[in-house]
Amino acid sequence: MTRPFLKMNGLGNDFVVIETRTAPFDPTADEVRAIADRKTGIGCDQLIVIDKAEDADAKVRFWNADGEEVSACGNGTRCVGWLLMQSSGKDEAVIETKAGRLIATRAGDRLVSVDMGEPGLGWQDIPLAEEHDTAALEVALYHHADLMAPPGCVSMGNPHVVFFVPDVEAVPIARIGPVIETHPLFPQHVNVGFAQIVDRHYIRLRVWERGAGLTQACGTGACAALVAASRRDLVGRHATLELDGGELHIEWREDGHVIMTGPAAVDFMGELP
């Protein structure tokens, strides 16, 4: 029996999306890795499974390309929200995730806004292995000239550390990212953001995602970068974030909720054997 899938992307952060509301699918780590393999599988940064939910339009689960299930994926949530709204004809979709209930709304032609909820800012929310000030982490995570300023830590349902650098293009992310991702301070490992503040309304960002590596875009990483920068008064409470795959608009509202707005796209459909 074959299983239909959609290949989607949010700013180049790409996903294999499988609908399981009529045919259950609980993949093993090996199955996830096989699907995500760009040489022998479909190829993706994350696998997304959409299931039925009692109190929401859908229940959604996410797996990174390394086979590990994770609680949140911002770009993936935007893609799922667009699919659900296209199917229902409504302008809003309620999505149940391990990180909590998220609300997606239409924001224009193929643009979707997602209320990502409130960021976790306590050291136990991230979580860290020991108590630290998450606004300015006074720990030498890596010895590199551009990383000497203390980074900030934010949880968006998944852990993020954000470094503020003068030139993000000059940072050897492929070398630094995996070292910081697996640093003992982060017991669940961590997504590593490198943010260049262009002005108070514009941030250039690149993200090394745990379990996926350097991706074209990271929605929760963009949310975390805006929150971390705002806490340090480097930007205000809303900004455009330029990632390798394009731009996201992030707002940290006065009620504490973070709103992410950006595109969602369908690349192709197919069937898994």
Total helix count? 4
Which term fits the overall shape? globular
CATH superfamily of the largest domain: Diaminopimelate Epimerase, Chain A, domain 1
Looking at the structure, the CATH topology of the largest domain is Diaminopimelate Epimerase, Chain A, domain 1
Number of strands: 17
Q: Per CATH, which architecture of the largest domain?
A: Roll
Give the helices and strands, then pairings.
Layout: E1 3-10, E2 13-19, H1 29-36, E3 46-51, E4 58-64, E5 69-70, H2 74-88, E6 92-97, E7 100-108, E8 111-115, E9 152-155, E10 159-164, H3 173-181, E11 191-199, E12 202-209, E13 213-214, H4 219-231, E14 238-243, E15 246-252, E16 258-263, E17 265-272
Parallel strand pairs: 2-3, 4-6, 10-11, 12-14
Antiparallel strand pairs: 1-2, 1-17, 3-4, 4-5, 6-7, 7-8, 8-16, 9-10, 11-12, 12-13, 14-15, 15-16
Notes on the protein architecture:
The protein is an alpha+beta fold and 273 residues long. It folds into two domains: 3-117 and 262-272, Roll (Diaminopimelate Epimerase, Chain A, domain 1), CATH 3.10.310.10; 145-256, Diaminopimelate Epimerase, Chain A, domain 1 (Roll). It has four helices and 17 strands. The protein has helices spanning 29-36, 74-88, 173-181, 219-231; strands at residues 3-10, 13-19, 46-51, 58-64, 69-70, 92-97, 100-108, 111-115, 152-155, 159-164, 191-199, 202-209, 213-214, 238-243, 246-252, 258-263, 265-272. It has a 17-stranded mixed beta sheet that branches. The longest helix is centred in the first third of the chain and has 15 residues, at 74-88.
